[in-house]
Amino acid sequence: xxxxxxxxxxxxxxxxxxxxxxxxxxxxxxxxxxxxxxxxxxxxxxxxxxxxxxxxxxxxxxxxxxxxxxxxxxxxxxxxxxxxxxxxxxxxxxxxxxxxxxxxxxxxxxxxxxxxxxxxxxxxxxxxxxxxxxxxxxxxxxxxxxxxxxxxxxxxxxxxxxxxxxxxxxxxxxxxxxxxxxxxxxxxxxxxxxxxxxxxxxxxxxxxxxxxxxxxxxxxxxxxxxxxxxxxxxxxxxxxxxxxxxxxxxxxxxxxxxxxxxxxxxxxxxxxxxxxxxxxxxxxxxxxxxxxxxxxxxxxxxxxxxxxxxxxxxxxxx
Length: 318
Prior knowledge:
Blueprint: E1 3-7, H1 11-24, E2 29-33, H2 39-47, E3 56-61, H3 72-86, E4 91-95, H4 106-112, E5 116-119, H5 128-141, E6 145-146, H6 148-158, H7 162-176, E7 181-182, H8 184-192, H9 198-206, H10 210-222, H11 227-249, H12 254-261, H13 265-278, H14 281-299, H15 305-317
Parallel strand pairs: 1-4, 1-5, 2-3, 3-4, 6-7
Helix pairs in contact: 2-3, 3-4, 5-6, 5-7, 6-8, 7-8, 9-10, 9-11, 10-15, 11-12, 11-14, 11-15, 14-15
């Protein structure tokens, strides 16, 4: 294949794909096109033999002629460009920065049968399984394995932001050195030094361990965590625990609970025994009332966010 098109909202994946092709063509002459480069100039560059190497690598970012309607003469020019490339050793890589190329344009219809087109999409918040698999695959490609708890910790800290996740994974792979597996302890230690993480906060809450939860809360606040963010995380945890108990009461199978809560089945398998032992539906309903009352006090300025969070935690988990 001589022509590649990488586009989509996940620009990190697009950039990595382009870099991968550049890495495989170290001896190719690089020719870069600006976004406003005329199609005629691109065709002229493709038609001219290289004076410095055996082949050329054309790189075009956000090229305007790919995402706008072309006149019939320009369509013919574009087709000639593709035909010349198909019969040469040269490679053309077109890519966008966080944008999707319109698929209904005539040049795209022509390009679909003569190029490799890759659409890079970001993971949605509910697509946790895809995020978990991406983390696992990237770690495996680095020659390591990773504990599922460490995957959860990474996702908890970075969400589905692949660029940030990739940075954290690279740091972890370097941090563990010759150790074959990245553990939860590794992820927590590297992210927060001798401190802790939001994952540890949720982990302590699942057991209704008040002293541990308060200690982790204090550490996170000292590390600069927003108390309102922790307040929201605590409410989110309580809501999840409440959903779990209600669904168990209805004798829902694990697969149904995972679907209803939009949580990873393995993660639920790990926390359900602790939630069942530590909580009841009535206690969680009371916790909702407590957090709602302190939320109002915080918004009215009666309590600081830090004080409201700590008091709500104490009354809910005591």
